[in-house]
Known about the structure:
The complex is a heterodimer of chains A (1050) and B (181).
Chain A: H1 2-34, H2 38-107, H3 115-124, E1 132-139, E2 141-142, H4 146-153, E3 170-171, E4 174-177, H5 193-205, E5 209-210, E6 214-215, E7 222-231, H6 241-247, E8 248-256, H7 258-268, E9 275-281, E10 289-292, E11 304-309, E12 318-324, H8 332-410, H9 415-445, E13 454-457, H10 458-476, E14 479-484, E15 491-494, H11 496-513, E16 518-525, H12 526-542, H13 545-588, H14 590-598, H15 617-632, H16 635-643, E17 646-655, H17 677-683, H18 689-699, E18 704-709, E19 713-724, H19 727-736, E20 749-753, H20 757-769, E21 773-777, H21 780-792, E22 802-806, H22 807-811, H23 813-829, E23 836-841, H24 846-854, E24 861-863, H25 868-879, H26 895-902, E25 906-910, H27 914-926, E26 930-934, H28 937-943, E27 952-956, H29 964-984, H30 987-992, E28 1001-1005, H31 1010-1018, E29 1023-1026, H32 1031-1044
Chain B: H1 3-19, H2 25-33, H3 41-65, H4 71-88, H5 91-106, H6 109-148, H7 168-180
Helix pairs in contact in B: 1-6, 3-4, 3-6, 4-5, 5-6
Amino acid sequence: xxxxxxxxxxxxxxxxxxxxxxxxxxxxxxxxxxxxxxxxxxxxxxxxxxxxxxxxxxxxxxxxxxxxxxxxxxxxxxxxxxxxxxxxxxxxxxxxxxxxxxxxxxxxxxxxxxxxxxxxxxxxxxxxxxxxxxxxxxxxxxxxxxxxxxxxxxxxxxxxxxxxxxxxxxxxxxxxxxxxxxxxxxxxxxxxxxxxxxxxxxxxxxxxxxxxxxxxxxxxxxxxxxxxxxxxxxxxxxxxxxxxxxxxxxxxxxxxxxxxxxxxxxxxxxxxxxxxxxxxxxxxxxxxxxxxxxxxxxxxxxxxxxxxxxxxxxxxxxxxxxxxxxxxxxxxxxxxxxxxxxxxxxxxxxxxxxxxxxxxxxxxxxxxxxxxxxxxxxxxxxxxxxxxxxxxxxxxxxxxxxxxxxxxxxxxxxxxxxxxxxxxxxxxxxxxxxxxxxxxxxxxxxxxxxxxxxxxxxxxxxxxxxxxxxxxxxxxxxxxxxxxxxxxxxxxxxxxxxxxxxxxxxxxxxxxxxxxxxxxxxxxxxxxxxxxxxxxxxxxxxxxxxxxxxxxxxxxxxxxxxxxxxxxxxxxxxxxxxxxxxxxxxxxxxxxxxxxxxxxxxxxxxxxxxxxxxxxxxxxxxxxxxxxxxxxxxxxxxxxxxxxxxxxxxxxxxxxxxxxxxxxxxxxxxxxxxxxxxxxxxxxxxxxxxxxxxxxxxxxxxxxxxxxxxxxxxxxxxxxxxxxxxxxxxxxxxxxxxxxxxxxxxxxxxxxxxxxxxxxxxxxxxxxxxxxxxxxxxxxxxxxxxxxxxxxxxxxxxxxxxxxxxxxxxxxxxxxxxxxxxxxxxxxxxxxxxxxxxxxxxxxxxxxxxxxxxxxxxxxxxxxxxxxxxxxxxxxxxxxxxxxxxxxxxxxxxxxxxxxxxxxxxxxxxxxxxxxxxxxxxxxxxxxxxxxxxxxxxxxxxxxxxxxxxxxxxxxxxxxxxxxxxxxxxxxxxxxxxxxxxxxxxxxxxxxxxxxxxxxxxxxxxxxxxxxxxxxxxxxxxxxxxxxxxxxxxxxxxxxxxxxxxxxxx
Amino acid sequence: xxxxxxxxxxxxxxxxxxxxxxxxxxxxxxxxxxxxxxxxxxxxxxxxxxxxxxxxxxxxxxxxxxxxxxxxxxxxxxxxxxxxxxxxxxxxxxxxxxxxxxxxxxxxxxxxxxxxxxxxxxxxxxxxxxxxxxxxxxxxxxxxxxxxxxxxxxxxxxxxxxxxxxxxxxxxxxxxxxxxx
Lengths: 1050, 181
């Protein structure tokens, strides 16, 4: 079953984790969704970036190219225009020359021009025709005129090949030529194919005409020849071609050195190197003739621009083609821009990728952590639950071991064997105590610890705890005392076991760490404590009325000495000190002064210094005074207090031990922490106790804190909330729970002689609990005075039956003497009313004891720590009254108590299993119960038909036919019917008798798990006991309802 | 065979029964329940157990051999048997019962058969062991009584038959001594 539970636990945790993941999943979003695609996305991004940068590059490159082209166009056009201009200028000059020739050679008669004139003129005007290598004039000579002409000039017409010209229709021999063309003289221009064509075209159009380019004779440059016709008469613009031919007189021609022309021209322009210019004659468009330019191979063929050239000859067409010399250089700007775009894109992509994958990774880690956290928490819970669950399994074998050891010790053993066995048993007990502690903690962690709410007497619990440590404290010579304020209700509702555990732990610690001085447990109401502390603060601050009065008195009584002390104290200790001292003087006069003189005496229980001075007499006095005032006067106060449901108690445990080092103070309540490792070496212990106490205190709705001063002591205090008990339930519970204190001492009177007021108050508290009226005297002298006065003068005053003397007082010699005096007087005077003298001591040697006996003390010494029951026992011994004390009430837990609970009760055991039935019956009988058996649910039903006499029913759950749950349901049904009838009918009778029928039914089950328990409660059972019976378990189950439902205890 | 010797013997037997796991602390608790008002409590319970268990074992055997196995019924029988075993602290028997019940839950007939044999075996062993233990207890008690009545010279061995049980003579002797007292 355990494993099943665990499994479901794991499932639960798992589901928690899953839910958590789901929640996270909503927030997961984008990145987690695309995490598997991240790399692909990155690649896509890179590709996109490549394209983008290529686009950028292309765009910029295209831009560049356009600009380059534009530049080329503009440059080309510019060059073409310039060339054209220059050319046309030259043409104009040639035209002018032609006009000159016609004017001066033909219109003038005789001719004003001869070769010399022409040569000179042309030479001198050559600057105007920089493009022309020279000009010449050829006269039109008809074949008929040839002879005449030749004669006239004295030379024959020659062909271009410098041979005498063959006979032709006409000739055009050069008659005038510029110096540079003198080689042309007498050459017939008509003999050259080009020239002839030119000439014919020129005279037909009357305009300048050009030859196609050819190698010039002189320079071998490419050139063209420009030819102008010279007419004999002035012709109209609309003259017909024959007319023109008819009137042609000659031709002016000039050779254009196109190559140098263009070279010159380009040389004048910037960026000459950048472009390559070609000029073509494209008259015959299928076969362009190069006029200028080289056909380089390594030019940029991709770009070129053609510009039309108009050289004024409509027949010829020319064009200029420009190219860049070099290919367009790589556009670095575009390239770098593109490259950087790409790099930036790449980087951005990479950053995004890394970020995304990082986020994904972090989220993964986060989820992993989350899961681990959930698992760790689950494991922690599981651990605690496991520990809590296996408690039984761990304890059982331990109990077996201890039981066996106990059996072993019962056998006859040699002393060594016995020693071994006892050691083993002690170790086993220590181990089981430790296991219990660890399990407690685990239970608390697993939230399985539930506090009981049963009425209990915390005074008797304190007494129990003290008795537990009395041996140890006595051995160490420490004073151990408990004080419970009268205002604290006698019975409170709470968990006595746990309360006891806390106190035991705190006192145990104190005992462990204290070598001298005292340990003092106090319980007050929290409000009361608070109020008193406030009051105290007031007093301290204003030196309030109380203090003032005391001081004044002190001065009066104590005289000069007192005054000095007071001054000193005031200097040292402030107003608080002042209050101390006045009190002392009031009580003890000079004695008090002596104590203060020592300077080491504090108004605490033992006189040692304590960490938290709140428990000093000054505060304490207020608490007590408060109490007396209230208990005497105001019942209203009490009533108002009792109106509230809860009561908050303030418990403090004060010791004068080694204290807690300051460095360790903040981890005192952490489990398994001791002040340091040496502590555990010296003192042992696991350090788990305080952490458990803390948890328990918190479960009780309180807080725990401490004040500690190294080498001075520690004061642990905690608050806890308990329920108040209803008055009517009071007596029953008191009977059931608290130990009975004998009432035989009620009304006795006692004087406590103790110079330490706190200690006196403690003694007084214990005596008060026995109903004894107490007065406190700080010395025997005063006590004697009290008695004496009362005894001799007025018998209505205090006549003590007892005088309790603290050992320290009596031990000092002077007091011993006084003691005798007192005794003497007593014996002389009133023998019959001789008060008993009892010594109070923490420890006492035989010699001292004898001496005390000799001094007149009774045989019985009351040993500290004081406990009401122990004091009562001692007093019984001394006074010889109330001898009979009930037995078996000392332990509120365990067999005797169980016996007292179950004794005489009529109990029905229902179990189908004969053996089980018999065992259960046997166990219950053993505790004095009157047991009936039923072997089935049905049988139980018949036996429990109302009215019946059973006080309780133990019911097996798993039974054939009718199981325990079903039987219980039917019983409850039956009861409720009966109750209805009863309430409806005879109310009075019902009120007299039991209020309602409700027989407590306890399930007996072998597997004690929570689910079963809940099932039990659901069907109306009151609890369960494990089967087979365990004493503790049985006690707990039985105690709960027998106390909580006292009416069934008829 | 004086009293202390017998006492040691009884303790030893109990110890070894516990050590070997035949019994657990429940048995000790049973013994604690035994007192003067109820001197034969443990023996009575144990006898009850063996009577009851004999019946149950028979039932189980029948259920096992006859026809198709009704596991629920078997489980029910075994639950009772286990309950009684745990009540007297018969640990080994109880463990076998638990095994049997597990097989029942699993519906494993073969396992049931096997463990049933084991159960019977453990049961038988326990029976003999407890019988001899009680024998020793009775011897001790009688010797104690004899010592108490000042009949130290009467040795219990003299009044035992071969089987180790007491013979009537002792009772007479005891009554006689009691009368005198």
